[in-house]
Amino acid sequence: MTTNVKKKIRVMVVDDHFVVRMGLSGSINLEADMIVESEASTGEQAIAMYREHQPDIVLMDLRLPAMSGTDATKIICQEFPTAAIIMLSTHDGEEDIYRSLQAGARTYLVKTAVRQELIDTIRAVHAGERRISASVGARLADRVTRPDLTAREMDVLGLIVKGRSNKEIASELSIAEVTVKLHVGHVLAKLGVNDRTQATTTALQRGIIRMD
Predict the structure, then answer these.
(1) Are 50 and 125 members of one domain?
(2) Which of 24, 118, 120, 131 is most buried by its number of CB atoms within 10 A?
């Protein structure tokens, strides 16, 4: 006589903070249908551990030392197209959300979410759903309607956030000052702002530029 035992959802937790990993793991292991099979504290470790264990679900921290959670997600999903990754972050900027989903994450969850939302999301993603909360969906909708900044415009915006003048930006990027002015105009227009101060505030709030 055989007993039909339902397999548990195998989870990998990726976070550079030990206490956070322990909290997430402890909470997940309380569920009868889940088990934390592996943990990692860096993006590089996450990739190596995924290759070794190939878990059903990955809880991936967005902010990791050296390699970001977004970059690790992209590499894992390129190698394992069926990987089911839930991005976790303390930030809810639309650019972070957009980049995470572009990298291959199935959904994006803010760490302030209640425990049951985390557990429900793990089950939903494991079942093949792409669960997006109303707040995350609203921010994502705002992002996808805006044109992308080019690589050069991102360089210029990064230096604007650092307080550089057009002359200083031109020197650092080895381009003409008139070209910088053109790029600044494009950046302001794409961000929907009127000046450099608003551009800086918007870039930081949306997660387009990070100062950490």
Answers:
(1) yes
(2) 24
